[in-house]
Amino acid sequence: MRTLKLRIQYLGTRYHGWQVQPGRPTIQGHLEEALAGILDHPVRVAGAGRTDAGVHARGQVASLTTESRVPLRGVLLGANGALPEDIRILSVEEAPRGFHARHHALSKDYAYRFSSAAVLSPFLSPTVEAVRGALDVERMRQAALHFLGEHDFSAFCGPESRARGAVRRVSDSSVEREDDGIWIYRVSANGFLQHMVRTMAGTLLLVGKGKLDPGSIPKILASRDRMRAGPTAGARGLTLEKVHYREEA
Predict the structure, then answer these.
(1) Annotated active-site positions, please?
(2) Antiparallel, parallel or unpaired: β 56-66 and 46-47
(3) Between the CA of residue 62 and those of 46, 68, 105, 106, 185, what are the distances in Å?
(4) How far apart are the C-alpha atoms of 65 and 63, rounded to whole Å?
(5) Domains recognised in the chain with CATH numbers
(6) Which of 1, 156, 186, 210 makes a 20 to 30 Å CA pair with 238?
């Protein structure tokens, strides 16, 4: 039995998220269908992150087991030939027996891209959230620092995630300019809850618009009250950038 590790990129615009859903196009669904055709048996692919509908990935990682002896290059080229053009497997490699993309992930990096430019290029709009009105980015930077460290993020996720435990450790939370008119909120943590990054981003955007004080973030965290945080920002701005493992390939 072989364990394969896949590195994947996709634009999530046309899909109902990562996880298989009957009757709906998903990233996992397309991957499993394409890989089953190459490996000649049903395939179950485990992803490191279950991205929501409309969310993208530059560095998603997935794993699967197979008894097929198809060479790695054959799996890579064959699967990509069967996948839609907005989903691509970047690499396929042999992984240690028992490797699981989600269970063995140490941390993940996400990025939320946004712009308040009067006109946003159509080449950027699929992956950048357009924001109306001016933003005070310095205030957003100040607020973002309050997310660093270990906190209960109940105020920044849905009820299902809260029921399973909402304590996470954030190692990076920063706002920087990526390109002319494009800003990016970067956040890294040992795990993420459903809608967590988008709610953090939505809260920071309120700070940038002057509707929330940067120093209010610790109080919102302590409250564990979802109603006190900002709205869930749009999915298009969010990208899973990288998944970290103990031994990086």
Answers:
(1) 52
(2) antiparallel
(3) 5, 17, 11, 14, 25
(4) 7
(5) 2-95 (3.30.70.580), 107-244 (3.30.70.660)
(6) 210
